[in-house]
Design goal:
- The protein is α+β, with helices and mostly antiparallel strands.
- Strands 1-2-3 form a 3-stranded antiparallel beta sheet, with helices on one face.
């Protein structure tokens, strides 16, 4: 699994939630986009915004909650799980 920079407990909870939703890394297309908004020059140099597309369902998520790419990758997967759960 990917290192998101989160606690081991949160990582395990996400892995279990992804399994329940039938969300697998092989079914995810992930892209990184330059962030926008406040953050100064750092924002212009790093691609911290995360775009996920679930190939099987066609659902997509774009997250830019944090300045950390790792955390945004975590939040994007969490949001994708929410979308998949609500789709049922």
């Amino acid at each position: 699994m990917i290192n998101f920079g989160i606690t081991e407990r949160k990582k395990q909870e996400l892995e279990q939630r992804m399994l329940k939703c039938n969300l697998f890394e092989k079914d995810i297309e992930e892209k990184f986009v330059r962030s926008s908004g406040s953050g100064g020059q750092k924002v212009n140099k790093s691609s911290t915004c995360v775009y996920l597309k679930h190939i099987t369902s066609g659902l997509s998520v774009k997250i830019q909650k944090s300045r950390s790419q790792g955390l945004n990758r975590y939040y994007a997967r969490k949001k994708m799980c929410e979308l998949l759960e609500n789709k049922r």
